[in-house]
Structure formats: C-alpha cells, structure tokens
Amino acid sequence: MSTPENMPEPTEQQTEQPAKKKRSPAKLIIAILIPVAVIGFGAYSYFTSVGSTSKVGDCLSGNINDADSIKKAECGSGASYKIVGRIEDKLQTEGGEGGAICEPFPTAEALYWEGPKDGKGNFLCLEPFKA
Fold first, then answer.
1. For residue 9, which of 19, 57, 71, 113 sits 20 to 30 Å off, Cα-Cα?
2. pLDDT band of 9, cuts 50, 70, 90
3. Which pTM was predicted?
4. Which long-range contacts (CB under 8 A, 24 or more apart) does 58-61 make?
5. Is-contact 77 86, C-beta < 8 A?
6. Alpha carbon distances (Å) from 94 to 102, 106, 121
7. Model confidence over 78-101: pLDDT tens digits?
8. What SS3 class is residue 75?
9. Residue 109 in 3-state DSSP?
10. Strands 71-73 vs 81-91: parallel, antiparallel or unpaired
C-alpha cells in the first residue's frame, strides 16, 4: 500500500491512543462513603439526641451534669428524672440564674440543655422521678 507523497507516514506516536487514567475503585468508594457517613452520623445524632426527641412526660436516666450519661429511659426503676417542661430554640445562656427559665414548671428541680456550642438548643425542665 502506498501513501501519497504529500502525506507523511503515520508514526507510532500518532497511532497510539492516549492512555486513560484508571480510577481506583477503592478511592472512589472512599470519596463517596466518607461524606455520606459524616452526614448520616450527624443526622442520627440529631434525631436520636435527648434534647431533640424527648417530650413532656418522658423519663431520663443519668446525671444531668454529664451530658454523655443522659439517656431516654422507661419511666420505672431505671429513671432519674421526668420531663415536666420543654423550651425550644434557646441559647444555653438564656436558662437564667438558677434555671429561671423553668419557673413556669413549679415541680422542676433540674434543668438540662442540649444544643450546638454557641447555637440554639432545647431546655428540658426536670423533676426527680418518683416510682
């Protein structure tokens, strides 16, 4: 086969297809899973936290001075407190001196606040649980 004289012979470089970069499936999976996991954990934490899911009449166990120990509980022998009031969308500093925000709930003896640092959260006005 002959080529016209004005056409150069194809070189090896011209005939090879450029090599495509292969993406590692592991890197792709990690790039997708990490953001999904972070978002999922944040949503799970919000929707299962005591401050966002508890309502008046629910019981809690744990120590209100240790937020990690506070959990929803069945109103029974394992309960420490019963929620008598709930005040939403407040800064922690709005609780007032000695828990003044719970004054409308005369049986409240303790106050628990849950929310993001420097953000708004929910106050729970608590009375000791009596079985």
1. 19
2. low
3. 0.61
4. 58/82, 58/83, 59/83, 59/129, 60/112, 60/124, 60/126
5. no
6. 11, 18, 10
7. 899 999 999 999 998 998 888 899
8. coil
9. coil
10. unpaired
